[in-house]
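Bug #77: duplicate submission created two jobs. Keeping one. Sequence:
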Amino acid sequence: MKQWAGLLVMIATLALAVAIVIWNPAAYFQTNLATWGYVGAFFIMFICSATIILPVPGWIGLFVLARYMDPLWLGVVGGFGSALGEITSYVFGRGGKMMIEERHIEVYERTKAWLHKNGLLVIFLFAALPLPVDIVGIAAGATGYPMWKFMAAMIPGKIIKTWIVTFSGSLTVGLF
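Kept job's structure:
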């Protein structure tokens, strides 16, 4: 029964990610970003980060918006949206935990011990650097890493990453 529940969680999470990619709200937000402002920045980063494995470039919108808005606040809002969108990879991992086969228990236990020892730093670095954040989100969910710790490391890391994008975008004022 546990395997079916895990499979259903994974299918639902993947369906959400596929629906986001097919609907492509990022394109809508990017064409209407000026009218949406900070709310648009939040949602574009949330939606783009909610896709699992499939990259959706929300950074383009923030880069462009930074020419017209305060890059400091734009980075904070975009970082929060992006961090909250990563919850889908965490939930996907939680569902996948129920499907771990007995022959992989040893690897699972080692990963769990390592992540619980170094989790805050690893999650922060994956969030702040151009690394595949979904992988660490799935691992955190699968190993039962506390969500509040996951988010406590994810939010500042994502804000730093979005600040790099927004401050870079703000430097392009007058170049184009």
